[in-house]
Amino acid sequence: MRYACPSCGRWVRPFVEVIAVSCTRCGAYARREEEDQDPLFARGEAPGEEAAEEEG
After folding, report:
1. For residue 33, how many other CB atoms are within 10 A of its CB?
2. Is residue 18 very low, low, confident or very high in pLDDT (cuts 50, 70, 90)?
């Protein structure tokens, strides 16, 4: 699962499956989406995601 922040576009991957999380960048509500719906996400190229800013 991935969580897309509607405010800044950052993708969030929580350690446990939840319905929603706060964005680690801006704190906005992030909605749940299926990873397989976006092939860019699987390659780590989703918009708003910086490789150097890996958290966890």
Report:
1. 14
2. low
